[in-house]
Amino acid sequence: MFIDSHCHFDFELFDDQRDSLMSRCLAAGVAGFLVPATTRNRWQKLQNLTSEYSHWRAAYGLHPYFLSGSYLSDIELLGDQCEKAHAIGVGEIGLDNWPGAVDMELQMAFFTRQLYVAKALELPVILHARKSYDLVLKCLRETGFFHGGTVHAFNGSLEQAQRFLDFGFVLGIGGTITYPRAKKAHRVLKALGDADFVLETDSPDMPLHAYQGQVNTPLSILIIAQHIATIREDNIEKIRALTYANLLRIFPKWYEDSL
Ligand SMILES: [Zn+2]
């Protein structure tokens, strides 16, 4: 099966089409969904949906771009939430150096504290890092975080990729590589080893080339995988098998005590 390692299938946008979309995904062979949390007030809904849909797995955390309604005290609840909801990771967490995001000092406080929670629980993390790879790596080093995880929507250089790989991470490859002009991303993808990446859509965001303006869904995993196969001169079945193996290596709790 194909696994979407990063989709926001819990968002309201999907509320009235989630069941039918799930059926279409399963029929198409997209049968695993890792859904990372964004804000504290969405944790319970994510937990409910994860117990309803047996193909879902969840990570809990506070997304760096949506911190304005969050409190550092929310992090005191994170460990309990992960345990009671059988989280397979902590996320999505990180640093977002983008207009509109809260102050970077505050983001770093949220990020490092959540890294310590993940470290204490021995859980991998789902990293959101926008224009912040060096700072994110610095935080990983300073917290001594070596449980790995995924770098969501990786779009850096091969050198930056290698530094995350050295920390035990794999790179999330998504819709960006479907754009013909994404030459650098294509070059990096081609140079990666078979063990270095997983598939993701970031649904409902990050539409594919030729689908701009439409709601992205986990069904896009099939198109992304086909593009990866073409760029790496492999067949899609090999991409399916290796990304599945990579995901299970990084998230060993995938088949453990699901809800
Ligand atoms: Zn996301």
UniProtKB/TrEMBL annotation:
Keyword Metal-binding: yes
GO molecular function: hydrolase activity, acting on ester bonds; metal ion binding
Chain sites annotated for binding a divalent metal cation 2: 128, 152
Tagged with keyword Lipid metabolism: no
Keyword annotations: Hydrolase, Metal-binding
Matches recorded under CDD domains: TatD_DNAse (cd01310)
Binding site for a divalent metal cation 1: 6, 8, 92, 202
CC terms in the record's Gene Ontology section: cytosol
Matches recorded under Pfam families: TatD_DNase
SUPFAM superfamilies noted in UniProt: Metallo-dependent hydrolases (SSF51556)
InterPro entries: DNase_TatD-rel_CS, Metal_Hydrolase, TatD-like
Family to which the UniProt record says this protein belongs: Belongs to the metallo-dependent hydrolases superfamily. TatD-type hydrolase family.
Protein name: TatD family hydrolase
Organism: Marinomonas transparens
Upper taxonomic lineage: Bacteria, Pseudomonadati, Pseudomonadota, Gammaproteobacteria, Oceanospirillales
